[in-house]
Design brief:
By secondary structure, the protein is α+β, with helices and mostly antiparallel strands. The chain contains five helices and ten strands. It has helices spanning 21-29, 47-53, 112-115, 126-134, 149-156; strands spanning 6-11, 33-36, 55-64, 70-78, 86-92, 99-106, 120-121, 138-140, 162-169, 172-180. The relative contact order is 0.16. β5 (86-92) and β6 form a beta hairpin. It is globular.
Length: 181
């Protein structure tokens, strides 16, 4: 996996306004966030710099500490040097019995919402369900051994590796962010 083009961890404080820029919007959402076309997004505070260096996608991940502080981890990806070919955000359904697709982006221009409209992932099902079950990140360098619907769809377009990062809140799992190579 190629290293991120740019990555930082920013404390979400009033110094970085809630709801502004990638960290502020992630902080406000309280969930992982994918922002496409950063180079054209005026709400992205450094959009001009992003356009200049070719950054076109940003991913924010909130991290809550035990002291009611939120930090935001950001990944910025350039079209010429992407950090992943697909990103997906999976969240628990209302009954918290399965994960359902919430948002994503795919370099193959796949309509992920339509692709996953009737699919879900159970606790312990593949890498994403495993991250939910354990609360620990999952690294999978061979999606051929992952029987989940997400892995099957990723394999169908030639993706073979995945990272699944659980986002835990006060009530347990809030989301799983998956990215694929």
């Amino acid at each position: 996996m190629a290293p991120p083009t740019c990555s930082n961890s920013t404390p979400a404080t009033p110094g970085f306004p809630r709801g502004f820029g990638l960290p502020g919007r992630t902080w406000k959402a309280g969930l992982p966030l994918i922002i496409k076309n950063l180079h054209n997004a005026r709400s992205f505070l450094r959009w001009e710099d992003a356009a200049e260096v070719g950054i076109n996608l940003g991913v924010g991940v909130p991290y809550r500490t035990g002291t009611d502080q939120t930090w935001v981890l950001t990944f910025l990806s350039a079209q010429a040097t992407p950090i992943a070919r697909r990103f997906e955000i999976w969240v628990p359904n209302e009954a918290r019995s399965a994960l359902v697709f919430r948002a994503g982006d795919c370099s193959a221009q796949t309509d992920l919402a339509a692709l996953y409209a009737d699919k879900s992932i159970g606790r312990g099902d593949g890498s994403i369900g495993g991250a939910w079950a354990t609360g620990m990140p999952a690294l999978n360098d061979d999606l051929g051994h992952d029987g989940s619907a997400a892995a099957a769809e990723a394999r169908a377009i030639g993706l073979s590796q995945m990272v699944a990062l659980p986002v835990i809140g006060s009530a347990g799992l809030e989301a799983v962010l998956a990215w694929y190579l």
